[in-house]
Structure formats: structure tokens, C-alpha cells
């Protein structure tokens, strides 16, 4: 009963102690303090998961990012990670150079968020891949994590996983689902591409976001795989590449390209030799089949860790310095005669933009070009991960 329900005249025989107390219009609602999150960033790479998590929780008052523990065995990855996050005083940070196969229960204790992007090679379907799944030695680290998750007395409340699309149909995925069920997780699975977020890059990845809200043995998966954002851009027919229209994403490649002047400042005399595709390469018979895009295009092929080392459309698109649209690039038997000096690689700094790392993220000075391409090619797309994480942490408890 509120104050409006009280009769205008109250019998004098009614004790004042039983009269309704009007609610105060100035009462302050009780606000729960934010919960501290202690993040275990497994296979941390260059910190894409951390950046996405920080972005997704930037305006969420329910959580406070208290600490990050990054676990990565690659020294070059760790160098890049520390270069960008060491000065972040808003959280406690630690980088562990550790083989995840050897992690013990004591290493994961107290971490209520696990993020991970396990090696994708056991599941990829690219040319020459063996698709060994759980039999691949590179799956051992993830197998150890599943064992820890199944046996630790206090498993994390939140788990986030990213991998290639074929992970979804692997026996490892089935085994991971069994562990999630056994520890009481409720989870959602996603198949999403940056194209669906207005980013001109075709890179479909599989995601799992899980939260422990049930008793052991009572976990379950939300039935349908989510394959489009809540506010999707115009749909594009699945599997079509050449027929993508400009409306498939709002941002053309020009939004991510750096000018030659900026690249000359970054690379100096090494610009032409490092980024411009050589006459020798363009003279190859197969060069006419390379993916070449221009400023007005809105789709690029997936950039991989072999970009800049292997020339093939499956490792990423090239950029035309003079043609607005890739379809207008003349495909001739001798591409060098027609295009020498005009076709270049996307610079690693441009790929950071496409992958959602932003202007402030930098490679350490002196890092080799080959290493820069490898690091970003193995990373996650920050914008897509940010989207999936928002859904995980916005769930009603």
C-alpha cells in the first residue's frame, strides 16, 4: 500500500503504529557494489580478448575488472602484449610465459573469468591441413584446460572461447560441451563474421560464451547457434564472394587504409621493398588469381598468419594503389607488365584497424614485419568478440 491508498480520514481509534508509512519520493535505491572480475587470459596472444573485454564492460556498472593474468608461451606475443598493456594502472596485470599443457589447479585458482583462443590448426580445412582434432599435439593444451575445468573445486563463473568454424563439428567441441554440462554451465554458441559488423573482412569464427548458473551435471546449451548480430546489416547470400555488393557493409576499405605519406613515415626507405608486391611475384602465372581490392571495395579475404609470406587469396587480399574497385583490375597473363608498383600488401597497422584494435594499439618498435603479420593473423577480431561478450555479461542473473 502506498500513500495514495490511505483514506483521507482515519478513525481516531486506530493506533498510529499501524498506519501505513508513505514512501519517500527522495528515497535512494540500493545499488549493489560492482563484482570484481579476475581474468585468466589463456593463449593471450597480443591481447585481443583483453581489449574486447575492457570495451564490453566499459559502461557496465555491475562488474569491475580487477586483474588480468595473461598466459602465453610465445615471447614475441608477450612482448607486444606488455608493450600495450604494461602501463594500464586501472587493473593488476601479470604475463606468464607458460606452456598451457603444464598449468595446474593452483595456477587457475581465484580466476572467475577464463578467455581462450586455442590453436586452430587441428581444426582448419585449408589446403594441406590434416584435421587431426584431438589427435593433434597442439590440442593437448586445450585438453589440459578441460581436465582442470572438470576437476577444480571452484570453476570460473564465465568462460569465453573463440576458434575457427570447423571447431564446431569436431570431437573436441563435443568433449568441451560435456565438461560444460558436468560443471553446470549454460552457454550460447555463435558463428559470426566481421562483415556482419560493418567491417570489410570475411573471417567467420566460432564462439562459445558460457556462464555457470546451474548445479554440476545440470548445464545445457541454448538450442540455436547465433549467426547474426542483434542489429544485423543487410543480408548477403552465404558463400558468395564475388557478388557482394557495396551495401554488404557500411565501411569501405578506404576507412581503414593509411596514406602513402603515413606509411613512408612508418617504414621509410623500407616501404617499397616491404609492402609493394615485387615484379617477380606479379610475373608468376598464378598472380592473376590473387585477391586484389581497391578503396571502394567492402570485402577482403581472411587475413592469416602467413600473410606477406605466402601469396594466395586464402591468406588475405592485396590492395591496389590506383584502382578504386578490385573488379576493375585487369587480369592479364603478365600482371607485372600491367601493375608493377601499384599492388601492395595491407600494412600491419591497417590490419590492426580492421581487427578492431584501434589507433592507440602499437607494435613494439623494431619488430620484424613478418612477426607483425603473424601476430595479427593469429588474433581475434576485437569488435566481434566485444559484441559476444556484451551478451554474456548482460545476462539477467
UniProtKB/TrEMBL annotation:
Q: Where does the record place a coiled coil?
A: none
Tell me where on the tree of life, at the top rank, the source sits: Eukaryota
Keyword S-adenosyl-L-methionine in record: yes
Entries under InterPro entries matching the protein: C5-MTase, C5_MeTfrase, SAM-dependent_MTases_sf
Q: What is any Pfam family matched here? A: DNA_methylase
Q: Which PROSITE patterns match?
A: SAM_MT_C5
Sequence segments annotated as region (Disordered):
1-25
* Molecular function terms from GO: methyltransferase activity
Q: Where is the active site?
A: 120
Asked if the Swiss-Prot or TrEMBL record annotates the protein with the keyword Transferase, the reply is: yes
From its record, what is one biological process in GO terms? methylation
Listed A to Z, the keywords are: Methyltransferase, S-adenosyl-L-methionine, Transferase
Q: Where is the composition biased (Low complexity)?
A: 1-24
The record's comment on protein family reads: Belongs to the class I-like SAM-binding methyltransferase superfamily. C5-methyltransferase family.
Q: What is this protein called?
A: Uncharacterized protein
Amino acid at each position: 500500500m502506498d500513500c495514495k491508498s490511505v483514506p483521507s480520514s482515519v478513525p481516531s481509534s486506530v493506533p498510529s503504529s499501524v498506519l501505513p508509512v508513505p514512501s519517500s519520493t527522495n528515497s535512494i535505491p540500493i545499488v549493489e557494489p560492482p563484482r570484481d572480475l579476475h581474468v585468466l587470459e589463456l593463449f593471450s596472444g597480443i591481447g585481443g580478448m583483453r581489449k574486447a573485454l575492457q570495451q564490453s564492460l566499459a559502461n557496465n556498472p555491475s562488474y569491475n575488472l580487477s586483474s588480468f593474468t595473461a598466459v602465453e608461451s610465445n615471447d614475441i606475443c608477450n612482448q607486444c602484449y606488455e608493450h600495450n598493456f604494461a602501463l594500464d594502472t586501472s587493473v593488476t596485470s601479470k604475463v606468464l610465459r607458460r606452456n598451457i599443457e603444464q598449468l595446474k589447479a593452483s595456477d587457475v585458482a581465484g580466476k572467475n573469468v577464463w578467455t581462450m583462443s586455442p590453436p586452430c590448426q587441428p581444426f582448419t580445412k585449408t589446403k594441406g591441413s590434416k584435421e587431426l582434432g584431438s589427435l593433434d599435439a597442439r590440442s593437448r593444451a586445450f585438453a589440459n584446460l578441460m581436465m582442470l575445468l572438470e576437476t577444480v573445486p571452484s570453476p570460473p563463473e564465465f568462460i569465453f572461447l573463440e576458434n575457427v568454424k570447423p571447431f564446431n563439428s569436431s570431437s573436441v567441441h563435443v568433449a568441451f560441451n560435456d565438461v560444460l554440462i558436468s560443471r553446470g554451465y549454460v552457454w550460447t554458441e555463435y558463428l559470426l563474421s566481421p562483415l556482419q559488423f560493418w567491417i570489410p573482412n570475411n573471417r567467420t569464427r566460432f564462439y562459445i560464451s558460457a556462464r555457470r548458473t546451474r548445479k554440476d551435471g545440470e548445464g545445457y546449451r541454448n538450442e540455436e547457434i547465433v549467426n547474426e548480430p542483434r542489429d544485423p546489416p543487410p543480408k548477403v547470400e552465404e558463400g558468395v564472394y564475388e557478388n557482394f555488393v557495396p551495401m554488404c557493409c557500411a565501411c569501405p576499405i578506404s576507412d581503414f587504409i593509411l596514406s602513402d605519406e603515413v606509411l613512408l613515415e612508418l617504414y621509410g626507405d623500407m616501404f617499397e621493398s616491404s609492402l609493394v608486391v615485387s615484379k617477380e611475384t606479379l610475373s608468376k602465372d598464378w598472380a592473376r588469381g590473387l585477391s586484389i581490392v581497391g578503396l571502394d571495395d567492402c570485402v577482403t579475404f581472411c587475413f592469416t598468419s602467413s600473410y606477406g609470406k605466402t601469396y594466395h587469396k586464402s591468406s588475405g587480399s592485396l590492395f591496389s594503389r590506383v584502382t578504386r574497385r578490385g573488379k576493375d583490375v585487369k587480369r592479364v597473363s603478365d600482371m607485372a607488365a600491367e601493375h608493377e608498383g601499384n599492388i601492395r600488401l595491407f600494412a600491419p597497422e591497417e590490419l590492426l584497424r580492421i581487427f578492431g584494435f584501434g589507433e592507440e594499439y602499437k607494435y613494439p618498435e623494431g619488430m620484424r614485419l613478418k612477426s607483425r603479420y603473424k601476430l595479427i593473423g593469429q588474433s581475434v577480431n576485437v569488435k566481434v568478440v566485444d559484441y559476444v561478450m556484451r551478451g554474456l555479461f548482460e545476462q539477467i542473473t
